[in-house]
């Protein structure tokens, strides 16, 4: 199971959903594919800044984040996407129209704004544009900072240890800190003193000490469990 690291500290972008989504719509959705597609499309529509908020099937087929979330739900994620869109339209969550010029499938939220946009499009007052493939790059995975690593692997951060963590973050490379926490977890030594000793030893002897020959175990692989905790 891939584990979520948790939401970071500080302000993060968010997507609001109406209470009716949870009280009326969510109890009606029994299919995971429909739910994933619905939530993703609503997220995309909320962040649209154009007067008419819509997405096209071509854009969704180029959305790497969405396709990855669907890859285990059907033989092909593209098939799951089409299925989820069909179900969301049949449910009444999304509105659908087909561009007569190029056959592109266009989707809008079934909201007052979406219904108004659909009506205006059908009257010829506006035409969907930008139907070309839009590949949304997946958001890069951010490396957790030392405070997140501490809270995820050791426990609640105490003020008395915060300054030591700040000093360590300024002193050691990020990958050293990641690896030191990993070794502590593997050796069931979930405490900062143990992790600090690993970092100090790497700083004095070199992180790759003991790896001079192929297959040779490093000092922390051989003796890590012997470090006084």
Mean pLDDT: 83
The CATH topology of the largest domain is given as Arc Repressor Mutant, subunit A
**What percentage of the residues does DSSP assign to strands (E)?**
5-15%
Care to count the β-strands?
Answer: 3
Distance between the termini: 30 Å
- Relative helix content: 40-55%
- Which spans of ≥5 residues are poorly predicted at pLDDT below 50? 131-141, 210-217, 219-223, 225-229
| Overall 3D shape | elongated
In short:
The chain has 229 residues and is mostly helical. It is built from 11 helices and 3 strands, in the order ααβαααββαααααα.
How would you portray this structure in words?
- This protein is mainly alpha-helical and 229 residues long.
- The protein has two domains: 19-122, Orthogonal Bundle (Arc Repressor Mutant, subunit A); 146-226, no CATH class.
- It is 49% helix and 5% strand.
- The chain is built from eleven helices and three strands, in the order ααβαααββαααααα.
- It has helices at residues 19-25, 32-46, 57-61, 64-70, 77-91, 112-122, 146-153, 159-171, 174-186, 192-205, 219-223, and strands at 55-56, 94-98, 105-109.
- Strands 1-3-2 form a three-stranded antiparallel β-sheet.
- The radius of gyration is 25 Å and the shape is elongated.
- It starts with 18 loop residues before the first helix and ends in a 6-residue tail after the last helix.
- 19% of the residues are buried.
- Mean pLDDT is 83; it is low at 131-141, 210-217, 219-223 and 225-229.
